[in-house]
Structure prediction request, 151 residues.
Amino acid sequence: MPAAGKAVRVKLSHVGIYVRDMERSLRWYQEVLGLKLSDYLPAGNTQEPAAPHGICWLRYDDLHHELVLVQLPPGALQAGETGRPGSLQQVAFRLGSEAEVEAACARLQAAGVEILRPPRRQRMSGGLQFYFADPDGNKIELFSSANRLPY
Prediction:
């Protein structure tokens, strides 16, 4: 462990997830969550050695990307597998208000998205949150602004 005050200060920039069907997942994130495509390298690309089967970068606003989708190679483990070391537990997106959380939940339900946990109050922060899954089973949380720490 680094000595006190010596730790590297970081802010989360983006999350990358594996998907089984890039086109389906890209369409889902654009239509259901309103993300915009920044860049896309299809299968067979040589520009991104870590993702030879396809990769795309998605954004909400002026950042290049907040979410990266990486195509699983044929025969790979299933996307969205939970409870395994190195697997993704969830991806969380903050909305501007509790009303936006409620409206988003209603919109997703109307679109046929299964809600895994309906809106409820976060015990620690007091914000409102709910959970659902993308087409590959990756758990997604939408929540209202949480209380900030006093430092």
